[in-house]
Amino acid sequence: MQVMASAMTAAALAATQPNFVIMMADDMGYGDWSRTGSPAKTPELDEWSRSENAVWFKRAYSGNPICSPTRASVMSGRTPARTCIYSVEQHILCRGGTQDEHGGCIRGEYSLANATREAGYISGFYGKWHLGSIRNETSDCYNRSASNGACLSGYVAHGELCCQGLDGGLMISNPHNFGFDEFVATPQCGAGATTNCGCFFYPKPHNDTACNVGHYFDACTTCDEHLKCAQYFHGLPDMTIQQWPDVSDNDDENFLVSRFSDLVDRSLSEKKPFLAVIFFHGVHIPYVATAESRALYPNATENEQDYWGGLTQISKAVGRVRSILKEKNLSDNTWVSLTADNGPEVSPASGQGTGGAFINPGRTDGLRGRKRDTSEGGIREIGIVEYPPVIKANRVEETFPIATMDLLPTVLDLLGKSSYEGRALDGTSLIPHLSGKQDERPQEAGLGWHGVFHFGSTNHVNGTFPYLCPNNSASH
Fold it and tell me: What is the pTM assigned to this prediction?
């Protein structure tokens, strides 16, 4: 009888507690989807933004105009000034004094997954991590003697070991350290149609899979890093980490949604609510689309076909997420949101194994600036939120600003928590606004830019316009 009662309690919890799906695109511009006039075909995003229980926020801001700091702001609800994540491959998201003797992160900054874990949820992270090394000597390193002293492509020497080379020399800090039960993640960026394709999967001696390198074909002379092999790692619920055992799907966004689908099935089987965080690789360079996606743009250049095709794949992936929720009868009680980590890449753009510079087709819809710029084009993003229990009618929100730091406070609010451990949050819950009880933002959103490029300014978004002021946020 006690076992039956426990099962009924778990089932009741899963039925009443909201599920969460938090998605983010990479380097997607404010004007990169078709509702804003972009040539990219994104019908699923357009339909979603007009759906009954959704709001399109026209003033949605990333926590920073580059990748890692914004990701840290999503996880922690805090500005880069507090998390000390100012740039990329610079610091790990880990609380001070919580590293083990190997430099690994014992205890990460309190995150979305910590909040939901405490409430009985299961959780999964899928996609681009970029907040520290995922490495683990049993998962991505092997003894150099196994390859005659020379490391295989995609690996770099670490003493007597050869280890995956895309961690930027950072200490271990992976999704497990931030409360996630499971993850399928890459350390850094990866092409949207080639991720995990050219990896060697040691101890296999070689990988004969042909990689789709899209418009980079002629320029790509040494493109193993990022373009052909951005190794996926699989973090299991028992806290072990393994290489993803084979080549991932040709459409990387679809591959990540398949991992999400697995989590949903596990949630239903275990009768527990879930948190899913999906950070797409597209459309960061190197952007590569599938042949099917490129074919949608017959009159475009190959470069544009890959970029716009990558946006089409993101749109399809979001549509599939919503379809899975509907098929499983979970739509009515699931928070679903999408934003981006910063504005579109500068143009022309090179690097990340691309071997050459290409005009970046990313659009800001006329906003000034791009990635790495704290003006609107660098930090103003797509922002769509759907949550039927609170949002009762579709609308376009023209003035109320939201930011990536708002996600954790919103999750805490829906879980019935106002704060955690007495630590400051820089975001605010969106539930009062979405429920019609709040017309103005109760506190400013500090959007930091302190990294290796520029120092000293923080862009604070309030109810009217962003303004620049000196940084005075304490790192605590």
Answer: 0.88
